[in-house]
From TrEMBL:
Superkingdom of the source species: Bacteria
Protein's name according to its UniProt entry: General stress protein
Naturally occurring in which organism (per UniProt): Sphingobium herbicidovorans (strain ATCC 700291 / DSM 11019 / CCUG 56400 / KCTC 2939 / LMG 18315 / NBRC 16415 / MH) (Sphingomonas herbicidovorans)
Domain General stress protein FMN-binding split barrel: from-to ranges: 9-132
Pfam family, one: Pyrid_ox_like
Amino acid sequence: MAVDTHKLKQHMWDKLEEGPFIMIGLADGSSHSEPLTAQLDKDQVDTIWFFIGKDNRLAKGGSVMAQFVSKGQDFFACLSGSVTVDNDPAMIDKLWSKPAEAWFPGGKTDPNLALLRFDIDEAELWESDMSLTGKLKMLFGGKINASEEGSHAVVSNTIV
């Protein structure tokens, strides 16, 4: 069966809107991941943005791995790609919000503000839309069949 990448991306975006926190870290073998709040732009579905401080370890850019667990803990994603600082004033205006302002009291021109651009190259997605029977088996220690476990997809190219 063919994977509908557009539908998968939309589903992931919906989950990110409900709970926008992502663990992201440089894929350098020594840096720890950190939680950041995703800023979503519907016009750029293969890019996730973050407001960070210029002194944040991610500001140097490079290859990253990111993990996301939905608010309902029924959707999981592991994303790989690269990050760069992209302080485009138009994009900062577009993504700016009251929660961002809480972290940067100087507003959009705060001297420590940096807009981090995460370009997604590959994603692996899981959804645990387990059947009622599967959930009962899990509660009582029964064996879960493949038809009861949910879905999984690897998307190596997120461009529709």
